[in-house]
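Supplementary notes for students who missed Thursday's class. We covered one full example, reproduced here. Read the sequence, then the structure, then the short commentary at the end.
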Amino acid sequence: MSRHPAWLDNAIFYQIYPQSFCDSNGDGIGDFQGIISKLDYIKDLGCNAIWMNPCFESPFLDAGYDIADYYKAAPRYGTNDDLIQLFDEVHKRGMHILLDLVPGHTSWNHPWFKASMKAERNEYTDRYVWTDSVWEEAAGYGSLRGISERDGSCLVNFFTHQPALNYGFFNPERPWQQPIDAEGPRKTLEAMMDVMRFWLSRGCDGFRVDMAGSLVKNDKDGKGTIALWQKVRAFLDKEFPEAAIISEWGEPDKALEGGFHMDFLFQSGPSHYNDLFRCEEPYFSSRGKGDVTAFVDKYVEYHNKTKNKGLICIPSGNHDIDRLARTLHGDELKVAFAFLLTMPGAPYIYYGDEIGMRYVEGLHSVEGGYRRTGSRSPMQWDNSTNAGFSTAPVEKLYIPLDPAADRPTAAAQMADPTSLRSEVQRLIALRQAHPALQNFGEIEFVHAGYPLMYLRSSGDENLLVIINPSAEEKRVEYAQTLGTCIYQLNSAVRQDGNTLVVPAQSASVFRK
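Structure (token representation):
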């Protein structure tokens, strides 16, 4: 197995969207001190690691993914000292925290970009990807044009205000396309490693890397980008060997070859992640019309390619996609979490998913959220003012709350042993008690359909997981004995000779 920080063995992550988590000063926007005040809640749930979305100086045209200063915390969240205090408080609780690194682009307000727009050459001229003429755009990319005295068009990665940093082209085809070993791309990578060095030396435990597979341009097979990240991994192994790096790539074989410790399966790409939770007929819907086979086939393919190299992670959701509770409800959510928390790879729980927070329909876009805005509403802590998120007047809240009278709250679910949160807490405790269920445990699929069955193993421990999201009882051939049941959601699995009778909307784990 490739080397990785030991704390990743049983890491269970909780994703915090800082502006929506907890507001400590009544301005309607979440902040570092608010997060600190809720760390015990996260630990009580059972999570021992945090991924926090970007928290740096920004004009917030894309919710902080448009960074104007990598070295300064955004004042609306607090100071650098407040952020370092957050690191310290996380560590006091035996937990770890990852910051969100955005290496592919900056805000157009970043001093680097302002310097790169100047006609005279300077140290930032080649920090971004520019064509030689304002009349030439880069085929396949958006661009900024006619904005400066410099002649040229600047590539953008997504939104118009996000100029692309220059890591070079794997196969340069135009005079302005610099190779990956040119001085400009090398300086850009050095600058990004300096950013990582700055925050790691102050207590950050690593980074989740935004759009990690997109840095080198004209790199169809990812070879140039893989080589770039291998340099980063060598730097980290030398200076910060306990730091973790997690990629938003969606192709684990490439990400792990590049030196990442884990990669997300997420909404875009070939993983069939959406088949599980977010499509017309999700597999985890009780209607029982979904199809899990394409997901399993792709997962097995990735698992074989990355065997003993790193982690493939399946998140409950994130800030870019619909809430889990938009398509799943009631016990469907409990069954889905039984899957998420018994699969290999580090689990990631998006804030509020553990209580079944809903997608808020009909919202206007906030900070570039557009249709994603409904998944970014404030955390619902209790039934006090603004659901306990903030004491600000309701019109000043970062994003409107779920207006429903029956919106779920953390307080109510903590008091209810039958709630979704209580079931998630129970599942996390089960996972942490059994090495076979943890991040590096092996997996072998036994049956892909209704039910879904897989073996998890580590050392001498072998566990069988049986999950049936359907509202109908299912039967499947299974000639072996089940063993001892160590977890059961809803009714118990029965064995009738060589046939298993799997109850509707159930999940079970057996020790073999």
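Commentary. The radius of gyration is 23 Å. The mean pLDDT is 95. If anything here is unclear, bring it to office hours.
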